[in-house]
Amino acid sequence: MVSRSRLYCWGVVANVIVVLLTGVCVVPVGDAAGKDVNLGVTYVEDTAGTFKRWQALGGYLSKVMNASVKVVPLNFDATVQWLEGGRLQMVLTNPLIFFLMKEKAQLSAMVIMAFKVRGESVDRYGSVVFVKAESPINAVSELGGKSVAIASKNSLGGGLGGLAMVEQEGVKVESLTLKELKEQDKVVLAVLNGATDAGIVRTGILEEMVAKQRLEMKDIKVLHRIEDAYPYVHSTHLWPEWVLAVRPEITPQEREQCKKALLSIPSNDEVLTSAGLNGFKDTGDMFATVSPFFDTVLKLYHKIKQ
User: Fold this and answer.
1) What digits encode the pLDDT tens for the residues 87-132?
2) Cα dist. 242→178, 201, 277 in Å?
3) Which of 40, 156, 172, 214 has a CA between 20 and 30 Å from the CA of residue 7?
4) How confident is the model at residue 226 (pLDDT cuts 50, 70, 90)?
5) For residue range 5-51, what is the model confidence (pLDDT) as tens digits?
6) Distance between CA atoms of 234 and 253, rounded to whole angstroms?
7) What DSSP letter does each residue of 5-26 carry, written as one string?
8) Are the C-beta atoms of residues 40 and 93 closer than 8 Å to each other?
9) How far apart are the first and last CA of the chain?
10) Could you give all domains of the chain from N- to C-terminal order, each with its CATH number?
11) pLDDT of 37-49, one tens digit each?
C-alpha cells in the first residue's frame, strides 16, 4: 500500500513536470471531493503574484461548490486558447476576452470585481488618451499621423479602448504609429520624455503615479476628457470591471449558488483583501449596454493583430 505522503510527493513532482513542459502552473485549492473545476485567471504581470492574489477565491469556490477548484494563471493568448479548447470551466478575465470568447466558449457573466476608491465602490473602468501639457495637440481629431504609446495591442484600458474611441472620432488607427511598451507606467514616461506624441493608459494609472510622486497632473493634457462623478480622469465611456464568467459545465444551480455566495462576502474577508477588492457585484445589464462599443473594439482588435 502506497502512503498518502508518497502519493502527495508524486503529485508535486507531476505538477512540476507540467510547469516545465507547458509553462502553465495549475494549483488545486482545497480538499473537496466533488468535480474538478479549472478557474482560469488572466494575468497581467506574473504567475506567482496571480496565485497569491486569487488562491483564497479558489478555496472559497471549492467550499461553495463542493468541488476541487484549480486556479490556472494564464496570459492573454493562453486564456483564449484554453477557452477554445474547453479546458476552463470558469474564467476571471477582462471584458475584451469575455466579448471575444462569449459565443465560441458559451460564456455567461456571473459577477464583476469592485474596488474601493476614495470611499466609493468602483466597478467600471476606461481609457485615458493624453499628451504632454505643452503639446500643440488639443483634440483627438488631431492625432492622425502621430505616434501613440500603448501598453499592448491586447490591452483594453491601456490600448484598444482608447483606440476605439479615437476611431469613433474619425481618426483611423492605420494613420497612427503605435508603440507597445508593455507597462503602462512606461507609456506615461514616454509621453513626458517626448518619445511619443500621445499615450493611452487605463483609468487610475495617472492618479497612482501622482500619489507616488512620479507625475504631476499639470504636466499632461487629457484629450476628450469626460466630466462626471467617476473618481478618475477618463477619455472614453466606462465599461464593466473584470468579470468572473462560467461555461455550461457549471450548472445554472451552481452558478446561482456561487453568485449568491460571492455577492455576500464581507469586505474584510481574506478572499477580498488578498485580491485587493472591495467586493463583487452583479453584472445586471452592464454587458448588454456596452456591447455596441465592444463591436468596435473587437473589429479593431482583429485589424491591428494582423
Assistant:
1) 999 999 999 999 999 999 999 999 999 999 998 999 999 999 999 9
2) 25, 16, 11
3) 40
4) very high
5) 333 333 433 343 334 433 444 444 444 457 999 999 999 878 889 98
6) 38
7) HHHHHHHHHHHHHHHHHHS---
8) yes
9) 56
10) 4-120+242-291 (3.40.190.10), 127-223 (3.40.190.10)
11) 999 999 987 888 9
pLDDT computed for residue 44 by the predictor: 83
Phi and psi angles of residue 153, each rounded to the nearest 5 degrees, phi first: -70, -10
Residues in Cβ contact with 275 at an 8 Å cutoff, skipping those fewer than 6 apart: 53, 54, 56, 57, 113
* Cβ atoms within 10 Å of 61's Cβ, excluding its own: 25
| 178 vs 21: CA distance, rounded Å | 34
DSSP 106-160: T-EEEEEEEEEETTEEE-EE-EEEEEETT-S--SGGG-TT-EEEES-TT-IIIII
- Cα dihedral 75, 76, 82, 84, rounded to 10, equals -170
Average pLDDT over residues 166-190: 97
Instruction: Render 45-81 in DSSP notation, one character per residue.
Output: S-HHHHHHHHHHHHHHHHHHHTSEEEEEEE-HHHHHH
pLDDT of the residue at 33: 52
Q: Which of 142, 288, 168, 114 is nearest to 223 (CA)?
A: 142
Report the distance separating Cα 200 and Cα 245, nearest Å. Answer: 27
C-alpha cell read off for 46 = 506574473
Q: b vs e for 15-34, b when ≥16 Cβ sit within 10 Å of the residue's Cβ? A: eeeeeeeeebbbbbbbebee
- In whole angstroms, give the CA distance from residue 95 to residue 241: 7
